[in-house]
Amino acid sequence: EAAAAFLEELEIAERHALITFYFEAFLGLAAFAAARGDLRRAAALDAAAWHHNDRPVTAAEQPVYDRLIERFLDPARRELGPAEWDRAAADGRGLRLEAAVELARAAGDAA
Q1: Dihedral Cα 98, 104, 107, 111, nearest 10 deg
Q2: What would the DSSP string read from start to end of 54-66?
Q3: In angstroms, how far is CA 86 from the centroid of its own chain?
Q4: What pLDDT is attached to residue 109?
Q5: Residue 109: CB partners within 8 Å, gap ≥ 6?
Q6: Low-confidence residues of the chain: pLDDT under 70
Q7: Rounded distance between C-alpha atoms, residue 47 and residue 105, angstroms
Q8: Which pTM value belongs to this model?
């Protein structure tokens, strides 16, 4: 299950201080939240992912992230509405790493 894999990635990130793993886990769990209809959480986790990203996305990675955004996050943004999405995203950008991890865990635990 995808949610379990992203939760495991969070554990690895914490254990080994791998910031890139936080980014991937937050973004993956944002997609999971969007697929479940938890749209505000999806927006907050998407924003937290990009806020806590420690490096530029490579050209090889970009198509993967583009597909995830197009398949899960863009439809969630349209459904929630851009203004509400932006408010939730602002909340996500404001989260310290520990709070973003808690938000991500709650999304994954709902699986």
Answers
A1: -110
A2: -SPPPTTTHHHHH
A3: 14
A4: 82
A5: 7
A6: 111
A7: 16
A8: 0.94
Whether residue 49 contacts residue 26, with contact meaning beta carbons closer than 8 Å, is answered with yes
Angle at 3 between CA 91 and CA 8, to 5 degrees: 95
Residue 111, pLDDT score: 61
Half-sphere CA count of 21, side-chain side, radius 13 A: 14
Biggest distance spanned by C-alpha atoms of the chain = 37
d(CA 50, CA 23): 7
Model pLDDT for residues 47-63, shown as the tens digit of each residue:
999 999 999 999 999 99
SS3 of 38, please? coil
